[in-house]
Design a protein that fits this description.
By secondary structure, the chain is mainly α. Helix content is about 70%, strand content about 0%. It has one domain. It starts with 8 loop residues before the first helix and ends with a helix.
């Protein structure tokens, strides 16, 4: 039997690359996401499916935030509020 979901690392990596090519992520944003995922894989032991979900979530957040490094904690709170209102 095959599992219904077959998460692969390349899915999220292609997502990051495509978003960067379309201008939705900066090269710095993409590197920050990759570094963050590498860190939590090493320290928290997350799997491919969880890593992919986090990557896709961060990509969506980027639509509401602007470049990641330019944000402050209050910016993140405001973004959370915007996301809640969109749901």
């Amino acid at each position: 039997m095959r599992p219904f979901h077959n998460p692969k690392t390349v899915y999220a990596d292609h997502s990051i690359t495509n978003a960067t090519n379309r201008g939705k992520l900066t090269a710095d944003d993409a590197q920050l996401i990759r570094d963050f995922i590498a860190e939590i894989k090493a320290t928290k032991g997350i799997g491919v499916a969880r890593a992919n979900k986090i990557i896709f979530t961060l990509g969506t957040w980027r639509n509401f935030l602007g470049p990641f490094r330019a944000n402050t904690i209050p910016d993140l709170y405001r973004c959370t509020e915007k996301l809640i209102l969109k749901c």
